[in-house]
Amino acid sequence: MHNPHIEESTPRQADLTGVLLAGGRSRRMGRDKARLFFAGQPLYQRALELLHRFCRHVLIAGSRPDLERPGLPSLPDRYPGSALGGLYTGLLAATTDWILVAPCDMPWPDARIVERMLTVRQGHDAVVPRTPDGYEPVFALYHKNCLGRMEEMLRQGQYRIYDFYRRIDIRYLDPPELPDGWQRSLVNINTPEQLARLLEEES
Ligand SMILES: Nc1nc2c(ncn2[C@@H]2O[C@H](COP(=O)(O)OP(=O)(O)OP(=O)(O)O)[C@@H](O)[C@H]2O)c(=O)[nH]1
Fold it and tell me: How many angstroms separate the Cα of 201 from the Cα of each of 1, 46, 125?
């Protein structure tokens, strides 16, 4: 089903590479989240469409030959086992200063959030939505400046994104700056129960 928040007219950003994070293990779901069928298409497809809307080049972080297609390579993590390792994979491979990251398990990614992130990024290392439920580190913008500090942590076996956040300059986007409906847009599907509930909502 078409996502109304991804408009055809959204301009592509020359300095932005899209990174689909798809290297997780889907333990809570018990089966691969990326290819779950949701409202007429595989779940990952929804984030992919949004990334293509903003970025000329999009890649998959994590070894996913099953999701590859011409112009959409998947890259194995150099430091496997965490979303931070996936961010590193994307940032290392990107030829642009910035990456726009999206997870493969977000049913309603909202282009308006991306637009707001792009507006405020200047002078920061990352832009991350922040809500009363916590941060959304896998639907965010990261600058190449982050690479060194990510690598430092990953080399030491430190994988916690929140520890990483203490080392960089982040511009958070809080609810007053987020568009209406952000609660729905920032949902990730993690469990079979959640999937069933959201499918019901969508139908
Ligand atoms: N490249 C890469 N992506 C990851 C990795 N771990 C998680 N992700 C991605 O990060 C996003 C959020 O993942 P989570 O739900 O936190 O983790 P998960 O491993 O997919 O699921 P659980 O096993 O249930 O925790 C998803 O898009 C995952 O595909 C990883 O080690 N490498």
Answer: 14, 17, 36
Write the pLDDT tens digit of every residue in 88-130.
999 999 999 999 999 999 999 999 999 999 999 999 999 999 9
21 is in an annotated binding site: yes
- Summarize pLDDT for 125-146 with one digit per residue, the tens: 999 999 999 999 999 999 999 9
User: Which domains occur in the chain, in start order?
Assistant: 13-202 (3.90.550.10)
87 assigned ligand-binding residue: no
Instruction: Identify the residues whose C-beta falls under 6 Å from ligand 1.
Output: 21-29, 33, 61-62, 77, 80-83, 85-86, 89, 103-105, 138, 190
Task: Give me the interface pTM, i.e. the ipTM.
Answer: 0.98
What pTM was estimated for this model as a whole? 0.95
State the distance from the centre of ligand 1 to the C-alpha of 138, rounded, in angstroms: 9
